[in-house]
Write a structure and sequence with these properties.
about 55% helix, about 10% strand, five-stranded parallel β-sheet, alpha/beta, two-stranded antiparallel ribbon, 10 helices, globular
Length: about 250
């Protein structure tokens, strides 16, 4: 529970920093007072003052403002990533990577390499974080992954971050499994995360995917996982194969 609270706080702070860098949001960061200000009210959105300022607006308006700012930020990030990937000579590699739990437990070293490349944004689904937390007592791989994630997210890097609550998109009309079918249900939550980001780009070209779902094997997934991913237009690759492809592309670009 502490780990999830920590991640939420880090995500909120990182989100505020990103909004402050984007035009038209009206959000600024005061480095001296270490708080956020809105140009429309010039009040600090920090501590007690943020509560006072927030109460001045109806709940519906505040929620709509946050949705608009989140939409502006995400669109700007997607456009930036698409231009960097295409401009850097990586037209067949997705800028967004969504790893499942098997990638963290079995190939953490590869995820670290992809993170250090600064060519991708690794989005960690909420269900994966929860599953790692459940497995940490009996799995050394889960414990190592949690320690690494805590360290990475503490620094607020843009190249790896946790999934935010609104960053999921229904797979309807596909029939969902029952929640007690744990592996299948968790895989659907990962798919929802990948599906959300896959629908944020401007390109509909299947050879130029925006998102790749990374996995290390079938032991953590339902038997129909590959077919489900394909039916929703999500590219799914073995993390070892994807990493090798990235290395080859990097060498070819000199």
């Amino acid at each position: 529970m502490f780990f999830q609270v920590f991640l939420r706080i880090q995500c909120l702070h990182s989100f505020g920093q990103l909004l402050a860098r984007l035009p038209k949001t009206g959000v600024n960061f005061n480095s001296e007072k270490e708080c956020f200000t809105a140009s429309s009210t010039e009040k600090c959105f920090s501590g007690a003052e943020s509560t006072e300022a927030g109460l001045e607006q109806p709940v519906g308006q505040r929620k709509q403002m946050m949705r608009n700012m989140a939409h502006l930020w995400l669109k700007a990030e997607v456009n930036d990533l698409e231009s960097k990937v295409k401009g850097g000579g990586f037209p067949q590699l997705s800028p967004y990577l969504v790893p499942d739990i098997s990638s963290f437990c079995q190939h953490l070293a590869l995820l670290k390499q992809l993170r250090l490349s600064k060519r991708f944004v690794i989005v960690v689904p909420s269900v994966v974080i929860a599953s790692l937390d459940e497995r940490k007592k009996e799995s050394m791989g889960a414990r190592e992954a949690i320690r690494w994630l805590e360290n990475e997210l503490r620094h607020g890097t843009r190249y790896i971050r946790a999934q935010r609550p609104q960053e999921c998109l229904s797979l309807s009309p596909i029939k969902y499994p029952r929640r007690k079918e744990k592996e299948a249900w968790e895989f659907f939550q990962v798919l929802e995360c990948a599906h959300f980001f896959n629908n944020q780009g401007s390109s509909n070209d299947p050879t130029d995917p925006l998102v790749t779902l990374l996995t290390a094997g079938a032991s953590f997934m339902p038997p129909s996982a590959a077919a489900l991913a394909k039916s929703t237009g999500i590219q799914m690759e073995n993390i070892t194969d994807f990493t090798n492809k990235w290395r080859t592309s990097s060498k070819s670009q000199g």
